[in-house]
Hints:
By secondary structure, the protein is α+β, with helices and mostly antiparallel strands. It is 59% helix and 10% strand. The chain is built from eight helices and four strands; from the N terminus they run H-H-H-H-H-E-H-E-H-E-E-H. Strands 1-4-2-3 form a four-stranded mixed beta sheet, covered by helices on one side.
Amino acid sequence: xxxxxxxxxxxxxxxxxxxxxxxxxxxxxxxxxxxxxxxxxxxxxxxxxxxxxxxxxxxxxxxxxxxxxxxxxxxxxxxxxxxxxxxxxxxxxxxxxxxxxxxxxxxxxxxxxxxxxxxxxxxxxxxxxxxxxxxxxxxxxxxxxxxxxxxxxxxxxxxxxxxxxxxxxxxxxxxxxxxxxxxxxxxxxxxxxxxxxxxxxxxxxxxxxxxxxxxxxxxxxxxx
Length: 224
């Protein structure tokens, strides 16, 4: 490129700079090196409004970059989570009837009633409740009509909606629900996440069954 051509580019660069464009924007428009643009416009003073625009553009670009980076990391975490869950399922493999029997005993030991004659299991997790209701019916040989449902819920939540949810999940009719325990919500206590359907309890009464269940627990824990 000759001297006249370079001069023309320099003048255009200075003109664009006076309009408030950034060095990067001028470089893209004129298709020259950034160092050349910086040299051509270094003596041009920008007004306050132009400087604010350049600052905001720079800040916005940095923010956009950080958002893109955060989303990328989020996708990577989600991909890793799916991969680990898949690997975990493969490691467990097929679940036999005996596996489910032992798993239910351990879950009952952790969350079940220990009082003599009372069979009961509480939880907020629908998967845990569904599993244990099926487990009690199958391994404790209890018909559906023998089971009772109960709800522990805060007074700012929808009791009717919660009871319907647990009834549909467990197959226990609403007519077999006992009176709900309504807890007063503490407005001064911050909770990260409310259990909108409360705590559900499935129960029945049987001294014989409870003592047998304690025997199952003792055997699994190897307690004599």
